[in-house]
Amino acid sequence: MEQSLISLERMRTFVRIAERGNLAAVARETGAGQSTVTRHLRELEEALGVSLLTRTTRRTALTDEGTRYYAQCVQILSLVEQASQEMRDTRQATAGTVRISCTGALGVLHVSRLIYAFQDENPDIRVEFGLTDERIDLVRDGVDIAIRLGPLSDCAMKLRSLGESQRMLVASPEWLRRNGPVRGPEDLRQLEGVRMSRVHGSDRLVLRSARGRNHAVPFHGRLIVDHGLAARDAFLAGRGYGPAHRWLIEDCLRDGRLEHVLPNYTLSPVPLSMLIAPERTNLTRVRLCVDFLAEGLRQVPGISR
C-alpha cells in the first residue's frame, strides 16, 4: 500500500463524493476541478487496493468497502477538526460558520430572533439559516443543527428534545359570527376548516375532553395550505377554523384577532426536537448555538417540557 497517497485531503475528497454522490458537484463545491477530484479518488483506491465507489453515467454509489471506509474517515476527520479546534485560542474557537435548518413558521416567528441575539453575543460566528418543512439529510446538506416538529426516526443524528408544542383550535371572531356558536365537537362536522398538506391524519381531529374522553370528528375544507404562516393568515381572513400551534397564533389570541374554539377540549401536543450532526457536536461554536437555541425555545409560548 502506498501510504503516501492516503492523506487527509484525499479522505476529505472521498467523504464529500460519498455524501454528494456526484464528482462534478464536489469539484464545483471545492473549486479543485473535476480532474483533481477524480485523481484523488483513484489514488486513494489504488493505495487501499479496493474500489470505494461504483460509478455509472448517472450515479455514484458506495461499495461495501467504501461504506466501511467512509464511516472511519468521518471519525478521523472529526477528530482532526476537534483537535485543531481545541488548540485554538478562545476567540478562534468561537469563530466560524454554524448552519441551521428550521421548520418555516417557527423559524420566521421565533428562531430568527434567537439567532440575532446569539450573534449579538457571539459576533465572530456566521450563521447560515435555512427554512424548510421538508425533512433534510444533515450530512448531505452540510447542516449542523436542524429544529423539527413531529416524531423523528433518524437515529444517526444526535437528538435533543426541546419539549412539546401545544396546539389549539382557533377561528376569527367574524367566522364564528357567521357560523354560529361551537358548543361541542359534533358541531364541527359541518363546518369549513383550513387544512395543512403533508400532515398525516389531517382529515380528522381528535379532541380530548376534560374528563379524558377522546372525540374524533372529520376535518374537511376547500383550502389546503403547506405552510403555517399561510394557515395563520387564512384563519385571520375568516376562511375557516383549524388547529394551530400556540406559538403561531399567541399574539392574535392576545389582541382578539383570533379566538380559542372549544377551550374545554385539547389537541395532542407535537414533539419539538433539535437534531445535531454527530461529527459537529464537539465544535465549540455549534455547542454554544445549540445551548442558546434550546434555552430560548423553551421560553416560546406554548412550548412545554
UniProtKB/TrEMBL annotation:
Q: Which Gene3D superfamilies match?
A: 3.40.190.290, Winged helix-like DNA-binding domain superfamily/Winged helix DNA-binding domain (1.10.10.10)
Family named by the database record: Belongs to the LysR transcriptional regulatory family.
Q: Name one Pfam family in it.
A: LysR_substrate
List the source organism: Gluconobacter japonicus
A GO term for molecular function = DNA binding
What keywords is this UniProt entry annotated with?
Answer: DNA-binding, Transcription, Transcription regulation
Keyword Ribonucleoprotein listed: no
Asked if the record carries the keyword Membrane, the reply is no
| Signal peptide coordinates | none
Q: Which InterPro entries match?
A: LysR-type_TF_proteobact-type, LysR_HTH_N, LysR_subst-bd, WH-like_DNA-bd_sf, WH_DNA-bd_sf
PANTHER family assigned to the protein according to its UniProt record, in alphabetical order:
HTH-TYPE TRANSCRIPTIONAL ACTIVATOR TTDR-RELATED (PTHR30537:SF5), HTH-TYPE TRANSCRIPTIONAL REGULATOR (PTHR30537)
Q: Where is the HTH lysR-type domain?
A: 6-63
Descriptive protein name: Transcriptional regulator
